[in-house]
Amino acid sequence: MFLKSTEYALRAVVFLARNRAEGKRFGKKEIAERLNFPEPYLAKILQHLAKNGIIHSAKGPQGGFYATSETLNYSLLDIIEVNEGLGFLKQCGMGLVECNHDEPCPIHNEYDKVRQSLYKILSEKKIKEIIDDLDAGIAFMKFEATESNNRHSHHHDH
Fold first, then answer.
1. Residues whose CB falls within 8 Å of the CB of residue 12, separated by 6 or more in sequence, listed in order
2. Above 70 in pLDDT, residue 149?
3. CA–CA distance, 36 with 95 (Å, rounded to integer)
4. Torsions phi, psi for 36 (to 5 deg)
5. 57 three-state secondary structure
6. Which run of H or E residues covers position 149?
7. Contact 83, 49 (CB under 8 A)
8. What is the pLDDT of residue 22?
9. Which pLDDT belongs to residue 60?
10. Burial class of 54 by CB neighbour count within 10 A (0 to 12, 13 to 18, 19+)
11. Torsion angle of alpha carbons 87, 134, 19, 64, nearest 10°?
């Protein structure tokens, strides 16, 4: 549904937020390995997130990317907005460029409801809640790249 870079951004932020500890920082190489993402691509995404204050970065031998308690208060929508903007909330459900309120596509009015509920879900779901859900075992996200995982996930990435 979102750009691949946005999927990476969301998962990287959750990873960093869940692994935040005093002074703990992660290099782009380690994050790429842990999440099974291509490193050069991920590096750009992380820098952009840091520049926009979602996560932070520090230079030097103890440097790397890290999350703070502020990171926990961002919603999924905040991260999506920083990464790709909110154009997906304006797009036609059938992908028609000329679709609008005056000349709606066949699913225009129904899709408006989907759009509104999507906005609500993404704007209300904070990183903190996601981590609470993961820790409580009521939601799941794989963070460790495993051999079997690598084989299965390859065809999704291209």
1. 31, 35, 37, 42, 45, 46, 49, 55, 65
2. no
3. 31
4. 65, 45
5. strand
6. helix 147-157
7. yes
8. 75
9. 86
10. buried
11. -20
Write down the mean pLDDT value for the chain. Answer: 89
Please give the biggest Cα pair distance in the chain.
58
Element (H, E) at 66: strand 64-66
Convert the pLDDT of each residue in 10-69 to its tens digit.
999 999 999 998 778 999 999 999 999 999 999 999 999 999 999 999 998 889 999 999
The label of the residue with tokens 């509104």 reads 116
What's the CA gap between 6 and 23, in Å, rounded? 26
Q: Which amino acid is at 95?
A: G
pLDDT at residue 145 in the model? 56
Contact, 127 vs 71, CB < 8 A? Answer: yes
Here the tokens at position 47 are 């820098």
Q: What is the set of domains in the chain, with CATH numbers?
A: 4-157 (1.10.10.10)
